[in-house]
Amino acid sequence: TTIRLNIMTLLSKKYLDIPKMLDAEDIVNTPKPDERAIMTYVSCFYHAFAGAEQAETAANRICKVLGVNQENEKLMEDYERLASELLEWIRRTTPWLENRVPEKTMSEMRKKLEDFRDYRRLHKPPKVQEKCQLEISFNTLQTKLRISNRPSFMPSEGKMVSDIASAWQGLEQAEKGYEEWLLTEIRRLERLDHLAEKFRQKATTHETWASGKEQILSQKDYDSASLSEIRALLRKHEAFESDLAAHQDRVEQIAAIAQELNELDYHDVAAVNQRCQSICDLWDHLGTLTQKRREALERTEKLLETVDQLFLEFAKRSAPFNNWMEGAMEDLQDMFIVHTIEEVQSLTAAHEQFKATLPEADSERQAILGIQNEVQKIYQNYGIRGNVTNPYSTISTEEIVVKWDKVKTLVPQRDGALQEELARQHANERLRRQFAAQANLIGPWIQTRMEEIARCALEMGGTLEDQMTQLKQYEHVIIAYKPNVDKLEGDHQLIQESLIFDNKHTNYTMEHIRVGWELLLTTIARTINEIETQILIRDAKGISQEQMHEFRSSFKHFDRKKNGVMDTDDFRACLISMGYDLGEVEFARIMMLVDPSATGVVSFQSFIDFMTRETADTDTADQVVASFRILATDKPYILADELRRELPPDQADYCIMRMPPYSGPGTVAGALDYTAFSTALYGESDL
Amino acid sequence: MEVLRDSRGWTHVELVLSGGAPWGFTLKGGREHREPLLVTKVEEGCKAAVAGVLIGDEIVSINAVPLTGYRQEAISLVKRSHNALTLVVRRFASLPIFPCNAKLF
């Protein structure tokens, strides 16, 4: 400052003649310079200059006018120049502002924004000022010209204020749009970056998830799975499907992002689209595969369920059928033992009934085997690999076939057996009939003969000899009949050998006939014997025919039951009729005599005996005793040589052998008791 | 005297004779003649009558020996007895008979 002040004072002195009134060092060094001094010095300058002014006024006027012209021309030139520059700048800048080609990256756009910001803060303000200046200059110029009565300034074409204004407007317009555009673009790019990143992220996540799914879905693991395994696979597939469904909106998101990227005109949108497309294609493919797998699994499940049902059906039907076959086999081989034609026939009928059920059984068998075939077919047609065995049944088709064949062979066998048996039973029946025919003849024949004999025995008219003749005739007939009985025995043997145990064609058994025959033989013999005995009695007792006849009539009369004998009441009545007055004791005695064996009945023989004893004159024991006494010369005993002397040798020996020793009073050695002997002879012994 | 009843009213009666032969009864019949062995006579007051033997009695055993039925056998058995003779007889018992001097059990 000091230096400058010094220079100023010097120069003013030199050129303006202003004395140096101030000291530079003083002014500088003094804290508060003297105001008045400075003002005085300065007014010198004023006066210097003012003084000069007038001097120059005239020259100045010319200079002023020229100068004004020069000024104005300069101003005009300046204006033109500035205007050109400005317009040039505008022309340059406007297209830059109008350039809406977006950059690819945000950083580039940001750069652009920065450039714009620079423009707005650095480049444009001076230009604004310039424009302002230009306007001011123009106005000043126009004023000056008007003041100085000069014509107004007319800028060259295109440089008019209006041109500048409109160009400036255009600039400002472009500017405004540009900033908006920049911001929009930047937002877009920001969004695009975000979206692209989001897309990448999601796509990657999705691709990770999707990898391998294709292989999994293409598995044919259901080919050889069982029903429960299929069901498990279906569950797993369901889970996968829901997973897939969950991923659906993720894929849609990805596609939406891609779409937005497309709309926002992402620079690398082709790659995005490609990736998106492959994702979508894969997605569709997965969807298709999933659907296919579901269908395959469901189809397989259904098939296996059908198979399972068939197996159940098989088990349900094959078990009873198997039982039936086993039962049939047993029944067909069932051993039978029969004794009548009817039994065989009922067995045959049962067998026929059984045979009638065979067609039904056969169709059942076919149905059951058909079930197995169906299962086979299903397995074949649908290519199911896996177990073809039935988990519900232990019965195999081979078993069924074998058993059925067995049944089929057993049926005719049984037919044969039954037929044989029927023939046998018919033969047996023939034997029975044969026997029965014979027996039914013989039985009554025997009966008739017995009756004949009984009748003959009771016959009262005719002689005993006549009876005897008749009986002998009967005997003859009977003997002649024997071959018939023998023949019957032969038939009976055949029957027994054939194991026939009954015969409904006759009530007579062989035993009946035998017994009857034997009884007949004994009866005829006994009856003949009785008649012989009666003849003997008659001859011995001297009963005349009339007496005999009488006896016979009585007997017949009192034989109330007409059975050839009298019971005790009959006999009692008979005795009473004959005049016997019997007490119980006496009657009992008599009963004892006539019925010693206590049979309760009195035979004709016994009756005759009783009657003749009472009436006949016979040798009694007493008479014989009397005879012996004579031989023993009145001794109570007899001696052996006395007997030998009087009786024929064999009779004497008989007596000697039979006579008991005499043990009464007066006995001697060798004395024989003829009394006891005699009574013994007559069936009596005195004790 | 022991009385046993069988079917039909026949009874078995045991009789004890004492005193020795002759006993006083007559036997008839026997197996030799295919007849039962019967008492046909009983002398009045004899030892048999005293013991209770009746006409019509069938001898079943003598001195506890069951008879085969032959008269000879019966005679021998009777003749072997000395002072006592035990008979079991079969008797039709429509009238129960209690001889007055029979032993009662």
TrEMBL record, chain A:
Pfam families listed in its UniProt record: EFhand_Ca_insen, Spectrin
Matches recorded under PROSITE patterns: EF_HAND_2
Domain EF-hand: residue ranges: 546-581
InterPro entries: CH_dom_sf, EF-hand-dom_pair, EF-hand_Ca_insen, EF_hand_dom, Spectrin/alpha-actinin, Spectrin_repeat
Single annotated GO MF: actin binding
Stretches assigned to coiled coil: 65-92, 230-264
Species annotation: Denticeps clupeoides
Assigned keywords, A-Z: Actin-binding, Calcium, Coiled coil, Metal-binding, Repeat
Protein name: EF-hand domain-containing protein
UniProtKB/TrEMBL annotation, chain B:
GO molecular function: actin filament binding
Keywords of the record: Actin-binding, Cytoplasm, Cytoskeleton, Developmental protein, Phosphoprotein
Compartment(s) where it occurs, according to its Swiss-Prot or TrEMBL record: Cytoplasm, Cytoskeleton
Domain PDZ intervals: 12-93
Predominant location: cytoplasm
Origin: domain of life: Eukaryota
Descriptive protein name: PDZ domain-containing protein
Protein species of origin: Denticeps clupeoides
